[in-house]
Amino acid sequence: MRRPLMLWPLVFFLLFLALGGFAGAIPLLMDPSGELLGMAEVLPLLPVPNFILPGLFLLVVMGLFPLLLAYALVARPDWARFSSLLRWSKHYWAWTATLVLVVIIALWLIYEGLLIGFFPITYVTAVLGLLILLFALMPGVRKFYAS
Question: 81-113 burial string, b = 16+ CB within 10 Å, else e?
């Protein structure tokens, strides 16, 4: 079965999210004070002593995880460990995990907004999450990954 045309924008937006995740994570992990990103004044508003945990979250959840999903959506590897975790959805595990990623993004942005307010990158990430959701739920994409 051919890959649906709408899969490619989905993969593009996942890769774009990963790029943004790395762009945020690397400076936070290199300088946990937040000075590299001009975020030092925000640190007292957070429940953590430095930006290591937010940096790790960005690295793993917004960087590595979208890369994994982009690869899996295109290559469709049969990784039994992941398939068994999300078998209840009746869809390929990477498609289901993409929806889970969107929920995680939404929760992260809400929590971030409540703690430190909203920045332009917050809105960019929110739009990116909505685009990922939109393309994942396109009928052709959804049907392609249905069991």
Answer: ebeeebeebebbbbbbbbbebbebbeebbeebe
CA distances from 43 to 50, 54, 63 (A): 7, 11, 22
pLDDT at residue 13 in the model: 98
What integer best gives the mean pLDDT of the chain?
Answer: 94
Can you tell me the distance from the alpha carbon of 136 to that of 73, in angstroms, rounded to the nearest whole number?
Answer: 10
Both tokens assigned to 30: 């290199």
Residues 100, 67: Cα–Cα separation, whole Å: 14
CA 81 to chain centre: 21
Q: Report how far residue 9's alpha carbon sits from residue 19's, in angstroms, rounded to the nearest whole number.
A: 15
